[in-house]
Amino acid sequence: MRKTVLAMLSVAGATILAPLPALAWDYPGHRIVGAIADLVLQQHYPHTRKKVSALLDIKDTGGTVIDKRSLSEVAVFPDCAKDEEEYCRRRPSAEEIAYVLRNLGHKSYHYTNSPLGENLYKPRGVGTADNDVVQMMKHAIRQLQKERVSKFEVNLTNTEALWLLAHLVGDLHQPLHISQIYYDKTCQNSVNPNEPANRDALTTLGGNLIKFAPTAPAVSPAPSLHIYWDATTIARAMHAAGRAGDEEGFARMLAAAPHTWAEQWVAEAIPIARKAYADANIVGKLDSGRCSWTVTLDENYENWAQKAASEQLAKAGFRLAALLVAIFPNKEEATSPPPP
To answer: Which residues, including other chains, have CB under 8 Å from residue 50's CB and lie 6 or more apart?
Structure first.
């Protein structure tokens, strides 16, 4: 099975994966997740792949396909839509702008800030929202399955629902997108704000407020612990695999190993998020009534983080493919061999 996948990749990779600058879990992370799903569908699930292409491909007024698009390509669109050029190094497209104008809360779709003290996702608990990553993933699935959609204000085309889903499956596997550490007013003791005594706990905004402590030489691997997990872990994982800057080659490697929906995946990733915070050397300081946090990482942490990032990307890619097969069922594909 592995040889078959790699042989297919050598033919298909050039059309599925175009080289792009390595930025956050978006570039190359989200593209890699989408690429793995593209490859699994291409080999095992032609019916699902056809359904996906029907939604993603751009057609002229006569219905002729003028631009074929892959899950790898569209998986970054929800970040590109944020109009922050570091995500895509381009301005949002007309398609992304239309999505934003109909979904003004779109920046909240990418994460849930559930406390580390919880072992499961708690709807309506501290850090969750009606339009967080878990609820938006459910919404997109229901819409693509033509079921009743959520009551809250979301307005997606089916094409947007698909490329949003491709993105959110990746976000759901980034540990700091699904859980975060909260502190008490001393800035030093972690607490669970779902407990009544800790209702005034201080948020770290998914680790975005945890900055790297000055080092000698003073070169930080990322602006914050959150961005470290978004970007640096992926870059290190690719480098360790001998695939620095090579999305296609890295996707090939990850496509050779698997794992099975939103709450379950959050519950599975929470221990990784817990370790991501607990094993980092985070120091809190209270100064003039305000908290600040700094972090330093040792080599053991960085080696563990790059391995965890690789495993999460691989899971996300295979799970995106499995999710799309479930959304677009077909009797023949029900008996197809499982992903490699």
So the answer is: none
